[in-house]
């Protein structure tokens, strides 16, 4: 903060560095002297989730992020997702190569609310085909306008590869800022976008046009990042209000909002002589022991008649049976101002302001009263819905079928019905009802005139705020011809469902299941490669009755249209193979018989089996009995490393490293290992050979390592010595010296003695 004097005027400045959203709010500057005080306020607002009020087209849909494509883990579907803002909620349309996409069993569209004015729109496509590739466009519309975003789906071969369009929609990663530079007021926004969007500034609903007072600039600060500024020279009261920076490119658009408010208190041109009231002590808040009475007390000095007003927030506090106020004169023009509050509640908490006013001015004292409310008993945790009995399917005359699910829930539930991947809607053909009695909800799906295409798997999804449960029902529809009734025991078994293979990996079980209909429990037999399968500890045959079909009706999920001569039971026939191995591969066939005949299923192949678990070998990892030791040599010498394993094991793998890099055997690097002793020799080392050397001994049971440091010193130079030439002459050999001695002796002595001497010399010759 700084105050600068300009003649008889003063300029007061408050500068906030690295401003954040927490710095937003209303700021007030108070200037006072011995004659009184004056104040001015200014509002600092950042961009919020709620657009500025009373602006046209502020609720127009705007895509805030690049569209993305997500593929299901099993590859069964692809989902496009877009995020946008709008007010009110927009309607969505999706286009594929300029063709409007309509809701169908393959295309599911939705829009959900993520937060206030923020939405997520999605398009899900099931069963991706090559023709689904190409450009997709999402269009959002409401009463304020429309916005769009595009994304491309590329499909190569049999695999779908979803790619986002290059570039990105504009976004503002930081809050806008307002700063003052001399007589200029600068509003700045940081924006990220690719390609560079079109920038438009708005003041209220009017487009801001560059002029001598208003300067608009865009500067690229880094890759795809720009600084957008609007500079207002010598701002006035008319420049206050809501500003909006709009950025739009081909991928989307975004907005940054700035509120610039100027407020100044109205002061008379000339202040009268005298003193405004002044508070002489810090305001205090006290409470009695029981907490039934709270007292707020201030001391103020005034040279003339004093007028006291209390405010709570923005409302004037008035006397009542619970609130009393008094002003007591003291001495030397000082007064005690008191506000008493009886039986306070949590609603009485908040900010209070005492205003002391006389004919020369006014002063304010602020007090904050915090009252913690008594904790409310926690609400019992909500429970998810639970089923009341199993889901049921029943028929109603004349031809209707009703699927019913009953759940218990303490909270209201919502239910949705699905037929396969298609959502079931209420219509003349599918009637959906929901009833509640004593926290029991009955959910019905009624089909008045069922058709063969209505058969299949139905799912009822029931949820409340605590969770969700799902019920599955299978509806089988048969159109039975009207035939002349025949005795029940004359009916041959009928293959209702061909065999299928189910693999349960967790239990290492392979199940082959089929379904047949028969009046009485049939005799069944499984064939493997045309040979009968005999039950044992690994293989077992299971026959279970799952329903009974009556004339003109159904039981357990099967609707019969027409007449049938006699009740027939439906049986599930299973062959369970525990720990299936390679011997269990091949074709299997089911044969069902009774006294009137037999029926055979189509062959089914079992190809997936489980490998036998091999016992893991037992043993210990290699251990070093002798570790590597540090080595120091001179350049040109050889360096030898040696260590020893605790046990002899030729299967152990030995790996040498230098400074973490594997060493290989070369003419200069010799390695040896005899199962226990580990050696390595480096010939003619150099200075750069220095470093950390490590050997790793590895086996199937683990690994151990040993390391040491190699230091290579520079080779010392050899001094050149000058030698005596006489000493450099070669010495005579011992034999030559002996012959010379013999010759000299012959000249001076007798033959016999010399001969002995020569023989003696010759004998000593090496």
How would you describe this structure to a colleague?
4% of the residues lie in helices and 53% in strands. The protein is mainly β and 766 residues long. The chain starts with a strand and ends with a helix. Helix 2 packs antiparallel against helix 3. The model is unreliable at 47-56, 157-164, 264-272, 480-490, 550-566 and 748-766 (pLDDT under 50). A hairpin with a 3-residue loop joins strand 57 and strand 58. It has a 6-stranded antiparallel β-sheet with strand order 3-4-23-22-18-19, with no helix packed on it. Strands 5, 6, 7, 10 and 11 form a 5-stranded antiparallel β-sheet that branches. It has a 5-stranded antiparallel β-sheet with strand order 9-8-12-13-14, with no helix packed on it. It is built from 3 helices and 60 strands.
Write the layout of secondary structure elements.
Elements: E1 2-6, E2 9-13, E3 25-33, E4 36-45, E5 62-63, E6 68-71, E7 77-85, E8 91-96, E9 99-100, E10 107-115, E11 118-126, E12 134-142, E13 145-156, E14 159-163, E15 168-171, E16 177-181, E17 184-194, E18 198-203, E19 206-207, E20 214-222, E21 225-233, E22 241-248, E23 253-264, E24 278-279, E25 284-287, E26 293-301, E27 307-312, E28 315-316, E29 323-329, E30 334-342, E31 350-358, E32 361-369, E33 386-387, E34 392-396, E35 400-408, E36 414-419, E37 422-424, E38 431-437, E39 440-447, E40 456-464, E41 467-480, E42 494-504, E43 509-518, E44 523-528, E45 531-532, E46 539-549, E47 558-562, E48 568-578, E49 586-594, E50 597-600, E51 604-606, E52 624-626, E53 631-634, E54 639-645, E55 653-658, E56 661-662, E57 669-673, E58 677-682, E59 691-699, E60 702-713, H1 725-728, H2 734-748, H3 751-764
Parallel strand pairs: 41-47, 53-60
Antiparallel strand pairs: 1-2, 3-4, 4-23, 5-7, 6-7, 7-11, 8-9, 8-12, 10-11, 12-13, 13-14, 15-17, 16-17, 17-21, 18-19, 18-22, 20-21, 22-23, 24-26, 25-26, 26-30, 27-28, 27-31, 29-30, 31-32, 33-35, 34-35, 35-39, 36-37, 36-40, 38-39, 40-41, 42-43, 43-48, 44-45, 44-49, 46-48, 49-50, 49-51, 52-54, ...
């Amino acid at each position: 903060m700084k105050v600068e004097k300009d003649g008889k005027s003063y300029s007061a400045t408050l500068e906030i560095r690295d401003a954040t959203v927490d710095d937003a709010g209303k700021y007030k500057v108070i200037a006072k002297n011995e004659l009184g005080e004056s104040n001015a306020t200014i509002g600092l607002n950042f961009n919020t989730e709620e657009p500025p009020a009373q602006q046209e087209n502020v609720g127009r849909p705007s895509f805030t992020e690049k569209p993305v494509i997500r593929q299901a883990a099993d590859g069964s579907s692809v989902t496009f997702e877009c995020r946008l803002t709008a007010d009110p909620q927009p309607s969505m349309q999706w286009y594929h190569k300029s063709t409007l996409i309509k809701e169908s069993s393959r295309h599911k569209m939705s829009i959900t609310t993520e937060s206030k004015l923020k939405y997520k729109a999605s398009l899900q496509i099931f069963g991706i085909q090559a023709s689904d590739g190409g450009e997709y466009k999402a269009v959002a519309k409401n009463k304020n306008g429309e916005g769009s975003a595009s994304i491309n789906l590329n499909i190569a071969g049999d695999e779908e590869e979803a790619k986002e369009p290059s570039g990105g929609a504009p976004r503002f990663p930081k809050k806008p800022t307002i700063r003052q530079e001399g007589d200029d007021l600068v509003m700045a926004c940081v924006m990220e976008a690719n390609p560079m969007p079109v920038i438009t500034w708005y003041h209220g609903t009017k487009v801001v046009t560059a002029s001598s007072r208003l300067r608009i600039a865009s500067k690229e600060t880094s890759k795809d990042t720009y600084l957008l500024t609007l500079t207002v020279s010598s701002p006035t009261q008319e420049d206050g209000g809501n500003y909006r920076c709009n950025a739009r490119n081909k991928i989307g658009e975004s907005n940054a909002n700035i509120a610039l408010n100027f407020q100044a208190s109205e002061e008379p041109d000339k202040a009268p002589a005298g003193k405004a009231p002044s508070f002489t002590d810090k305001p205090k808040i006290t409470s009695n022991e029981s907490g039934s009475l709270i007292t707020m007390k201030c001391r103020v000095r005034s040279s003339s008649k004093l007028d006291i007003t209390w405010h709570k927030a923005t409302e004037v506090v008035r006397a009542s049976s619970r609130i009393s106020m008094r002003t007591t004169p003291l001495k030397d023009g000082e007064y005690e101002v008191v506000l008493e509050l009886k039986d306070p509640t949590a609603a009485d908490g908040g900010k209070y302001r005492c205003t002391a006013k006389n004919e020369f001015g006014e002063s304010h004292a602020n007090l904050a009263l915090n009252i913690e409310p008594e904790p409310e008993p926690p609400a019992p945790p909500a429970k998810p819905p639970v089923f009341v009995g199993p889901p049921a399917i029943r028929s109603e005359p004349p031809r209707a079928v009703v699927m019913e699910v009953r759940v218990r829930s303490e909270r209201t539930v919502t239910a949705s019905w699905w037929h396969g991947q298609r959502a079931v809607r209420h219509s003349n053909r599918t009637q959906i009802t929901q009833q509640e009695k004593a926290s029991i909800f009955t959910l019905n799906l009624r089909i008045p005139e069922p058709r063969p295409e209505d058969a299949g798997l139905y799912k009822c999804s029931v949820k409340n705020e605590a969770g969700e449960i799902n019920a599955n029902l299978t509806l089988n529809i048969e159109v039975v011809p009207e035939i002349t009734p025949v005795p029940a025991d004359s009916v041959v078994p009928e293959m209702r469902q061909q065999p299928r293979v189910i693999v349960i990996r967790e239990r290492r079980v392979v199940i082959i299941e089929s379904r047949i209909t028969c009046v009485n429990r049939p005799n069944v037999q499984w064939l493997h490669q045309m040979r009968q399968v005999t039950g044992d500890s690994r293989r077992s045959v299971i026959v279970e009755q799952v329903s009974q079909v009556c004339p003109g009706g159904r039981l357990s999920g099967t609707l019969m249209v027409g007449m049938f001569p006699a009740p027939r039971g439906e049986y599930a026939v299973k062959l369970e193979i525990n720990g299936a191995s390679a011997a269990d591969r091949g074709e299997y066939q089911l044969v069902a018989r009774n006294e009137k005949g037999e029926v055979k299923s189509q062959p089914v192949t079992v190809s997936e089996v489980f490998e036998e678990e091999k016992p893991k070998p037992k043993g210990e990892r290699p251990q070093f009995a002798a570790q590597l030791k540090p080595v120091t040599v001179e350049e040109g010498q050889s360096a030898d490393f040696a260590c020893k394993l605790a046990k002899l094991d030729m299967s152990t793998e030995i790996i040498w490293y230098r400074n973490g890099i594997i060493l290989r055997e070369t003419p200069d690097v010799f390695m040896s290992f005899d199962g226990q002793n580990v050696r390595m020799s480096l010939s003619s080392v150099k200075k750069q050979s220095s470093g950390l050397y490590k050997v790793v001994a590895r086996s199937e049971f683990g690994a151990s390592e040993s390391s040491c440091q190699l230091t290579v010193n520079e080779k010392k130079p050899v001094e050149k010595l000058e030698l005596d030439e006489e000493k450099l002459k070669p010495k005579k050999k011992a034999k030559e010296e002996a012959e010379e001695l013999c010759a000299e002796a012959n000249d001076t002595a007798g033959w016999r003695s010399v001969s002995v001497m020569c023989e003696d010399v010759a004998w000593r010759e090496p």
